[in-house]
Amino acid sequence: MEVMNNLTNMADLDNMFYSNNSYRAWIGLNADSWTWSLSNTSFYKPGETEFRLWGDGEPNIGYNDKACTGMYPNGLWYDYDCYSKTYPVCADVKGSDVTFVIVPTRMTWPEAQGYCRDHRTDLASVRNMTENQKVQEAARGNYVWIGLSRDSWKWSDGSNSSFSFWKKGQPDNNNGNKTCVAADFSQSGAWEDWPCDMERAFICYGPVVSKKVMMKVKFENKKNLDLNDPAVMEAMLKQLKQKLRAQGLDDNIKLSWRKQADGKVFHKEDKKTNKRRRKREEL
């Protein structure tokens, strides 16, 4: 939430007002489109990877979850939890000939995918109405898995995060296959899902620019420790980092001691020299 607050404070709404969907900017969250397990592009003619035969109200699993596709006994499709178990229909592909075979063992979708790839070609792809009829016949009145699935939300850089900041009613999954996320800065940056091919403002991020700072520190050595002992120096660094973290500094801050010309980090203060130096400064 701290990041969202920072973005909201940085957003210049005056420069984002250019359309009916103003005050919105893309962030790096998106949901992959539905894809077939059999990914060989030569298997599909133009438009065949987009063939769908969803049942009424389907798909209905939100984009927060990975979803896999099953077929009802009537041949229509539904999306469901990929780790539920049902019968898979595998495809045997030999040149231009494709046959469909039901496996009489209930499996999760990932198990079904692995089984079909090991024993046949892959989970069934359905490219047209004719093949849908063949899969329905192979299913013999059972609910079955076919090879269509969709990943859950993920970040553009591949990172994972459990944080979400969806606007009420979002995501609504009404944007076709590929869906991306925009922050609405007129509502504190709350997230909405939109078709990815829309044009709008966007927010980039890059690596944090590092800066090196040298500081001179002074310790009272009441216990007469050897401050140049590596173990003692390491313990002091840990204490310093804890104090800096307590003051709100970034956890990524790196501390190290700098050795002087004689190879030592610490030198005992010469009080007489310091007294003479202070007198000269007063004069």
From TrEMBL:
Disordered: annotated span: 264-283
Statement: the UniProt record of this protein carries the keyword Transport: no
Signal peptide: none
Gene source species: Perca flavescens (American yellow perch)
Cross-referenced InterPro entries: C-type_lectin-like, C-type_lectin-like/link_sf, C-type_lectin_CS, CTDL_fold
Protein name: C-type lectin domain-containing protein
Keywords: Disulfide bond
Domain of life assignment: Eukaryota
Keyword Disulfide bond carried by entry: yes
Pfam short name (any one): Lectin_C
Domain C-type lectin as annotated: residue spans: 5-91, 100-205
Residue stretches of biased makeup (Basic residues): 273-283
